[in-house]
Specification:
single chain; alpha/beta; eight-stranded mixed beta sheet; two-stranded antiparallel ribbon; 11 helices; 10 strands; disordered N terminus
Length: 344
């Protein structure tokens, strides 16, 4: 009887030990799962593998979706029609949904298929661009991805980059246009040179300069009449995003304008400057963008600069440091030196 009780106790202890071990293991994997979800990823080999479509399936699907025909997709990819059909069948099995309606030899994307085709095409195009970009980067060189507003990029930043390359030939600076502030983290940009905005809260910023507006026109438009009278008479050129700019300028300068809102409207300062250069009227544009045009006599500015009509430009960097911080620090120092040079 005692022996049976001892055996039962041993069995119970063994069971409790196994149960405790099982609970510990479940807790361990639960912790890993929680950690992975916290960091937005599931580690391969710990919980589950990512189930991603093969390149062949995606290429076959994108071509078939674009042509609306398996045979033409097969011809483009140098495959058989059967191979295209098999690749798409594998993709549909992986996704657990249909992508095409098949009626005889005809195929047509269903709504889910059309949406997926758009995403796949964007991804393949981006992958191709990134591949071509990487092939063009010399070994041992560094590169920066910088976002900037269009007119600032074309009229201020890019014309100065030649001097940067002379000093730092090992750093390649790529520029992309972003008209409005955006979420910098995860955007693929190392930094942005942009006007100050609440959207940059939490980012690291460095002040550069103020963008102040001044009226400019082609010299052929001016006469011997008083310049303030001419400003009221000349056709006015507006930037669409700031329709009140001329009204504010008239109030600050004290120059009487019969109807400040009259005149054509353009989206970009670059467009307004082009219109002024061609003699179409007087444009209210940032002084830093037309310094060269003023110095060579292509434009004239006999009216005062508007101190209240300004935007504060700054270099915006992500809150966290990145792999390109060393190159970015070099660019930041150079940018600060350039911004300290006032237009003549």
């Amino acid at each position: 009887m005692l022996a049976a009780a001892a055996l039962l106790l041993d069995v119970s202890s063994c069971y409790l030990l196994k149960l405790s071990l099982r609970i510990d293991i479940i807790s361990f994997f639960s912790d890993i799962k929680s950690l992975n979800h916290k960091h937005g990823r599931v580690q391969k080999g710990v919980l589950m593998r990512r189930k991603l479509p093969s390149n062949r399936s995606l290429l076959a699907f994108e071509a078939a979706a674009r042509h609306g025909n398996f045979a033409r997709a097969a011809e483009e990819l140098s495959l058989t029609e059967g191979a295209i059909s098999r690749q798409i069948a594998r993709l549909e099995a992986l996704l657990d949904c249909k992508l095409f309606d098949r009626t005889g030899s005809r195929v047509q994307l269903i709504p889910n298929g059309a949406r997926y085709a758009h995403r796949v095409r964007e991804t393949l195009e981006r992958l191709d661009r990134d591949t071509q970009y990487l092939k063009g980067v010399p070994d041992g060189s560094k590169s920066l991805e910088i976002a900037a507003p269009p007119t600032f990029a074309s009229r201020w930043l890019i014309p100065r980059l030649g001097k940067f390359r002379e000093k730092h030939p090992d750093i390649m600076v790529n520029i992309a246009v972003r008209t409005d502030p955006f979420i910098l983290t995860g955007s693929g940009f190392d930094a942005a040179v942009h006007f100050d905005h609440p959207a940059w809260a939490g980012m690291r910023t460095r002040s550069l300069f103020h963008e102040r507006l001044v009226p400019v026109c082609h010299p052929s438009l001016l006469t011997d009449a008083p310049v303030n009278t001419q400003l009221n008479r000349l056709p006015r050129i507006h930037r669409r995003q700031t329709p009140e700019a001329w009204h504010h300028y008239a109030r600050e300068s004290g120059i009487a304008l019969d109807n400040p809102a009259l005149g054509v409207r353009y989206d970009l300062h670059e467009m307004a400057i082009a219109a002024a250069l061609s003699g179409q009227g007087v444009a209210l544009v940032p002084q830093v963008y037309i310094a060269n045009d003023l110095s060579r006599g292509a434009l004239v500015a006999p009216w005062p600069v508007a101190n209240s009509l300004s935007k504060h430009f700054c270099l915006v960097k992500p809150a966290e440091t990145g792999v390109n911080d060393a190159a970015l620090a070099v660019f930041e120092g150079w940018l600060d030196d350039e911004a300290s040079v006032r237009p003549g």
